[in-house]
Amino acid sequence: MPSTVNPSLLEDLVIANHILVNQGVLDGFGHMSVRHDKRADLFFIARSMAPALVTLGDLVCCNLQGEVIHPVGVTSYVERFIHSEVFKVRADVNSVIHSHSPAIIPFGVTKERLRPICHMSGFLGSSTPVYEIRNSAGENSDLLIRNQTLGRDLAEVLGSNAVALLRGHGNVCVGNSIKQSVYRAIYTENNAKLQLQARQLGEVTYLTDAEATATSDMNDQHLDRPWQMWKRSVQQNSI
Is residue 185 part of a domain? Predict the structure, then answer.
């Protein structure tokens, strides 16, 4: 393994995969990663497999070209370039999640933008950008981010945001830690559900930019609270 990594970081990555499945964000598909705590040019992700089944032995180390460098010969997800390209341009990001969480999909294929509707999702900001793969790959792609070019284009659309949607293909959530990225992935899905419900009742009052910033800053101070609850739920279910 290139450079010694904090074992707890990898343990949290495994737990996070299971939490996201337990919370309905990931299913048989989707993936998440964490940057090496001592090498900013490396990150950890699972080999190509269902997130619910990930163990410590399934984790691989990749470089920022999206190449698996350890263990040699192991294959990771086709879309690992989502992670490598975001890590490459966002020094503030230490964890990346790509999911197909169901309530998100409508906001990537309509003109309705995903916006923060409650204080738990202020990190969404004024509006969530949407990546249109046709602008990069034409109209015959399989929608997968399967190379560095597509990953770079997605990272550009993400910009400085916490979340970007992929038209017809879910979303990417980023954070400065595993706990933050997991929180954001779960509450992005929750916000989408609430927004869809509220829109059926009439005009929606969204958070202002200032409210979004203030609530996001406040919630970032308490990430361990939901993390411990989600972690305990996963551990109890595995007994």
Answer: yes
Number of structural domains found in the chain: 1
Interval 33-87: pLDDT, tens: 999 999 999 999 999 999 999 999 999 999 999 999 999 999 999 999 999 999 9
Q: How far is CA 10 from CA 3, 32, 93, 105, in A?
A: 14, 12, 16, 30
Put the strands of the sheet holding 171-175 in their side by side order. Answer: 68-70, 59-63, 42-46, 31-35, 95-99, 171-175, 163-166, 130-131
Catalytic annotation, residues = 79
Distances in whole angstroms, Cα of residue 139 to Cα of each of 73, 88, 136, 157: 33, 27, 9, 19
Instruction: Give residue 51's domain range.
Output: 7-228
pLDDT in tens, 14-44: 999 999 999 999 999 999 999 999 999 999 9
Residue 159 is part of a domain; what is its CATH number?
3.40.225.10
User: What's the Cα-to-Cα distance from 219 to each of 54, 72, 118, 208, 216, rounded to whole Å?
Assistant: 28, 40, 12, 16, 5
83/79 Cα distance (integer angstroms): 8
What's the rounded Cα separation, in Å, for the pair 239 and 235? 7
Q: Is residue 238 part of a domain?
A: no
**Tokens for 55?**
């163990």
pTM of the model: 0.96
